[in-house]
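Case 252 in the screening queue. Each case pairs one protein sequence with one candidate compound; here the compound is zinc ion. For every case the pipeline is the same: read the inputs, emit a complex structure as tokens, and attach any notable structural observations.

Predict complex for case 252.
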Amino acid sequence: MMKTEEKIKAVRNRDASYRGKFFVAVRTTKIVCTPDCPAKPLEKNIVFYDTLEEALQAGYRPCKICMKEFPNNKRNNMETIKITRYQSPVGDMLVGSYGDKLCICDWAVEKRRSTIDRRIQRHLNAKYEEGTSDVIERAIGELEEYFAGHRKIFDIPVVFTGSEFQCTVWEELMKIPYGTTISYGELARCIHNPKAVRAVASANATNPISIFVPCHRVIGSNHKLTGYGGGLDAKKGLLELECPKIKGIGLW
Ligand SMILES: [Zn+2]
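Case 252 output:
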């Protein structure tokens, strides 16, 4: 059990790492928030709940500021994360949606698999359930076009499930154009944090929405491929698909 002092401290620090671990209900406004909500309530008015469901049952409404990604009108019936397997030409993937957004497109075999899955479910406060959805169908359709060489830009809405820093890095990744690469150092400079090369590399490695959030376009400054969740062959396959002329010139 987490101590009340720890919860109060998390709320004071707006600590995003506590998202999903407990919920902060405000007696005066009847609104329930995540611990990192920017709208700070008076401490004397708050009550803690371990799950969102308990708070909703007690009559609290989800905060519009910090819980945009939580369903507003489903009280007792928590939304699930629909998840389906997709066989891509470079490896098996898990494609999943939460509401009308894509929350995962990741390699089925990846050493951080269970850690990433736990984080996504905790962040969205929802459980995986095998199945499909409109977003998943559209995402797979776009992936098929991409692998056939007919699609360079994706237009599926995504929901990020990470810390503020991870989200900043992932948003930046979405700006790297098709067929180009940048180094971890350049990526760190892009987010105005040139010294954070290692942190940027680790945020890049924990991106759960591969291809749509193109972490494969980040390579070492020496043009080495470095690491990739789907394995180096998958990374090489994606880069060669996007830029056939680099194939065979021994860039890596
Ligand atoms: Zn809030």
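Case 252 observations:
- The radius of gyration is 20 Å.
- Residues 72-77 have pLDDT under 50 and may be disordered.
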